[in-house]
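Quick check before the chapter quiz. The format below is the same one you will see on the exam, so make sure you can read both the input and the output lines.
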Amino acid sequence: MEAAVDVLCSVGRRLTVHPGTAPQITTLTGGTVESDQGRRLLGKVHGKLAKTAGAGTAWIWVEDHSDLLHFPTPFAEMSLAAKTDALADLLGPLLAEYVHVAGIVISNVARRRLPLPPNEDALRPAAQGFRRGLPLDRVRETIMVPRRILLPEQTSLIARMCDAEANALNWALGKLGVPHGVASLLADSSTPQRVYPLWTP
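Here is the expected output.
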């Protein structure tokens, strides 16, 4: 059996990792560490808004890598419709402040256990939310907050992009002449395969 390992997490905090299965009476101890992901997200959006100020009409797209939409927090556990409303409330004032911005899109991809949740749309009064399962075990949640005075063609284009993403890889493989789409990329381990050298002297 391997020994326990101490991992220094931050000043004054230590995580001890023990090998093997945790006993049933195991509990977590120590102070709760919290972070304000809404403030971090607003900071990221503010940066993009400032950078595009002289560019004419702009859409701001933030690819969130902090798992804000999926990490087990009260926000992530909300329904897609509730998340969409919450982000519309958070980001709406920025659209009033930065008049060159047509809309703000927040998107996140996370790995999920199979089966993936069904596709879902949340068409709310001030925003639109999309949840799509992607090959092979990913789920993307995208929330689009457009300006109140809509640019219907642009808003519709982004909505169609979010809607069609789950089938984009199959479509592209079909255009390249690859039969059976994504399924053709998954090798059956029982099928013998040839290995080709990368370099031959």
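If your answer matched, good. DSSP finds three helices and seven strands in the chain.
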